[in-house]
Structure formats: structure tokens, C-alpha cells
Amino acid sequence: RKIKMSISQFGIIISENEPLLNGAQKLVDTCSNHCVQAEIIKIEHINHKSLGLLPLCLYPLSNSDYLSSLAPLLMRRGYYIINGNYHQQRFDKISMQACLQSAGIRVPEFYPMNLVSKIKALMNTGMQFLAKPNCHLRKQEILSRDDTLARFQDSITVKGEYYAERFIDAENEHKLYVVGEKIFFDYNKLDTRMNEIIQITDGIRTVSKLEIFSFDLIQETATHHLFVIDVNPASAFYLATDARIQFVQYVKSKLASL
């Protein structure tokens, strides 16, 4: 099959194994509405023959492990990869939480799943845990007793596939979107904590080197403290129209500098 050079200015990389096609299409449509030619590129179709034929600016809307090796390769070839510096660091979810914690950002306590005796001892004090996947492609599960922990341990097939995170009784969960220096969220729910949110966002940006991302905050019922429970480097801004439009403006600024 003859490979044609892309005529698009901007490419959104997705994986066939992730349910992000609708989000990617929304981004393409928003780009089109703001005079940016964009296309969807499946990561499985990128090979040595197509490496020189991609749009110059690319956004990985994927959490595929392949990105950690693909992004540096594309960057060396002169492509601008949004969040490229992040992908070079090979973060998984637990290492991201560890970096946030070391930077002074409040995250729930977490333990590798192989620390069974430690997790059991804490569960015996009444503490509940979530078995959280170490990537964005699997579902989490509540661990409340020894039998649920044992059953879950038996189901794990890959070392490091999950980790245990303390379950926090929370009043609300909040999704925040970050595009460059701009933050988008429901101001009716968090407007009184803007300074704290800015500090958290700056901390995530510094630690991760992310340009574009979303993250989830919960507010603990007992203390009202805000905890970061997830950072997503592959946001499609699916329900955040303003953030999606700002994303396109960000892409335009990058295209103008290439």
C-alpha cells in the first residue's frame, strides 16, 4: 500500500485498544471549526515508512506503553509532541502519585500490592482501600476485608498491575482540565479554593512536565482537604467545550511557531 504524506497540520494519536475515538473526533471537529486541519492517527499504524509523513504537531490521546518509546523518536525527527516531555519520563500511575506526594501535593496513602501484611494490618484498623490499576485502561475495586484482598491478589496476573490506595470518604469529586496556563472547572463548586487549586495545578505541571492534562480532585468529608486521585495526560475534554476550544487555540500557537 502506498503511503501518502499527510496534508493535515495536526494529528491526534489514538490506539485501537482504547475507547477514545469519540473524544478524538470531537477534537478534530473543533479544530475544523477553528480553521485547523486535523486528522486521527492510530498508533498501531505508525511505522518506519510513515514516520516522515505525519503532521508536524501531534497530540497523543492515548495511554499506550508504546508512547514512551515512540514520543522521543518522533521528537528527534523534528515533530512537536504535545506532552512529549512527559511521555519521555515513563510515568505509570503509582509513580506519578509518588512524585506528587514528594512535591507536597496531597494524595491518598498508597502501597504496592505486594505489601500484603501492611495492607492487611491497616484494614484491620478499619481502613478501606481501592485496588487501583497502574494504567488508565482498567477498573478499580474496593478492598474492605482480608477475603477481598486475597481474592484480588489471586486475580492479578502481572506484577505491578495494581496498587492499593486508601479509600477516602469524599463529599464531591471534581474534574479539572488544564490547557497551558489556563484551568477549567466548575467554579460554582470550587471558587473559594482557587489559590489552592492553582498551587496544585502548578505542582502537577512542574513534576510531570505536562502541557495539557486533566486531573481529579476529591474533598474529604471529615477534613475538607483536597486530594489528587488521578492525573490524565490524554484528555479529550469530552464534556468541557471551553477547554476544548482553548486546546485548539493552544495547537494554533504551536503550529505558528513550527
Descriptive account of the structure:
This protein has a four-stranded parallel beta sheet, with helices on both faces. The protein is 35% helix and 24% strand. It has 258 residues and is an alpha/beta fold. The protein has helices at residues 21-33, 67-76, 84-87, 93-102, 116-123, 146-155, 187-190, 194-208, 241-257; strands at 10-14, 38-42, 57-60, 80-81, 110-112, 129-133, 141-143, 162-166, 170-179, 182-184, 212-220, 226-232. The radius of gyration is 20 Å and the shape is globular. Residues 1-5 have low confidence and may be disordered. It contains nine helices and twelve strands.
Question: How many helical elements?
Answer: 9
Q: On the 0-100 scale, what is the average pLDDT?
A: 86
Distance between the termini: 30 Å
Strand percentage, roughly? 15-25%
* Radius of gyration, in angstroms, nearest whole number: 20 Å
Helix content: 25-40%
Residue runs with pLDDT of under 50 for 5 or more positions: 1-5
Number of strands: 12
User: What class, by secondary structure content?
Assistant: alpha/beta
What form results from the Cα inertia axes? globular
